[in-house]
Amino acid sequence: MKLANEVMASKPDNEIVTTRIIREKRDRVFKAWSDPSILSRWWGPNGFTNTINQFEFQKGGAWKFVMQGPDGKDYPNHCEFVEISDDQFISWNHLSNPNFQVAASFDDIDDGYTKVTFKMVFLNPQDCNKIKAFVIGKNEENLDRLENVLLSSEYY
């Protein structure tokens, strides 16, 4: 089974969902996900850095990057964008192992607050369960790092 070229349907047994209310306007939060110079500063769990080699932010575009771990190892990643809706939604297929699809949505909540929903959808429950316990905390670290960049002068 192969990842879809459209946003995949998900069920609770094949998805990992992380939600965060961020004290920032939606357009700025979206920009932090869509501008590689900002994205590279926060993407990934604590201790990781990124080198983005290709970032074609359009449907069918490639996103290729290397995450450098605190263990000194390089972790190459290859993704392909599936859908992008200005300031509201981004979806991409993670084509490196493990394979999954990400759907990230950005919703206005209240005066300058944005709800971010970060969903990882796997082809089957077995693939999801292999990394679920580990990834839940790492996704929280990822969103912590996003908030820190948004609240700092690094964003500008």
List the helices and strands and how they pair.
Elements: E1 15-22, H1 26-34, H2 36-42, E2 49-55, E3 62-68, E4 74-85, E5 89-94, E6 100-110, E7 113-121, H3 125-151
What would you say this structure looks like, in words?
With 156 residues, the protein is α+β, with helices and mostly antiparallel strands. It has a domain at 13-45 and 81-155: Alpha-D-Glucose-1,6-Bisphosphate, Chain A, domain 4, CATH 3.30.530.20. The protein is 28% helix and 38% strand. The chain contains three helices and seven strands. It has helices at residues 26-34, 36-42, 125-151; strands at residues 15-22, 49-55, 62-68, 74-85, 89-94, 100-110, 113-121. The chain has a seven-stranded antiparallel β-sheet with strand order 1-7-6-5-4-3-2, with helices on one face. A hairpin with a 2-residue loop joins strand 6 and strand 7. Helix 1 (26-34) packs across helix 2 and helix 2 (36-42) packs across helix 3. It is globular, with a radius of gyration of 15 Å.
Report how far the terminal alpha carbons are from each other. 42 Å
Radius of gyration: 15 Å
CATH C-level of the domain at 13-45 and 81-155: Alpha Beta
Number of helices: 3
What share of the residues lie within helices?
Answer: 25-40%
Q: Uncertain segments of ≥5 residues (pLDDT<50)? A: none
* Overall pLDDT metric: 93
Structure at a glance:
With 156 residues, the protein is α+β, with helices and mostly antiparallel strands. Helix content is 28%, strand content 38%.
